[in-house]
Automatic annotation (TrEMBL):
GO biological process, one term: RNA stabilization
The keyword Transferase is assigned to this record: no
SMART domains, A to Z: S1
The protein's name in its UniProt record: Zinc finger CCHC domain-containing protein 17
Organism encoding this protein: Columbina picui (Picui ground-dove)
Quaternary organization: Interacts with PNN. Associates with the 60S ribosomal subunit.
Pfam families: S1
């Protein structure tokens, strides 16, 4: 068994291969190679790893992960947390690495469902009897004008179909209601 560097150890390695997703680095003192993924090459976005490194270049890397997969040891390396001039650790407490891991685990809602505020829209004011607001938000004066919500287009179509009127008539009436307000 070869002596591998410990986790979070920094060393200088030689670039063995450059691929579209990163670069493989020869680890000194053993025959293993580790991968520097393109996301760990620089703090800036890297689209082509070949623009950053070439085969044979000496680079400073930090061992950030060891993983057994299909009975093979896979090593993950990072260049962005090491100063490439001096080899100094730019992330001694591994805070940046933890943040990168958290970014990968964020929840995203891809269902694209509309959010509706039915709880408020379906309420009836105790003061004026209109839908869509609470009594404490009511602006009705005793004997004054009553205000209601303007129905959405879908509701207008249902109302128009139910009363045998066409949509243009109901839209014209709604616009006259808006002017009264």
């Amino acid at each position: 068994m070869e002596a591998l560097p410990e986790l979070y150890a920094i060393f200088q390695g030689e670039v063995a291969t450059v691929t579209e997703y990163g670069a493989f680095i020869k680890i000194p003192g053993c025959r293993k190679q580790g991968l520097v993924h393109r996301t760990h090459m620089s703090s800036c976005r890297v689209d082509k790893p070949s623009e950053i490194v070439d085969v044979g270049d000496k680079v400073w890397v930090k061992l950030i992960g060891k993983e057994m997969k299909d009975e093979k040891l896979k090593l993950s390396l990072s260049m962005k947390v090491v100063n490439q001039g001096t080899g100094k650790d730019l992330d001694p407490n591994n805070v940046s690495l933890d943040q990168d891991e958290r970014k990968k685990c964020t929840f995203r809602d891809y269902t694209s469902q509309k959010i509706t505020l039915e709880a408020v829209l379906n309420t009836v004011c105790k003061k004026c009897g209109c839908k869509g607001h609470f009594a404490k938000e009511c602006f009705m004066q005793p004997g004054g004008t009553k205000y209601t919500l303007i129905p959405e287009e879908e509701e207008e179509e249902v109302v128009a179909a139910g009363h045998g009127r066409d949509k243009k008539t109901s839209v014209a009436e709604d616009s006259s209601k808006k002017r009264k307000k």
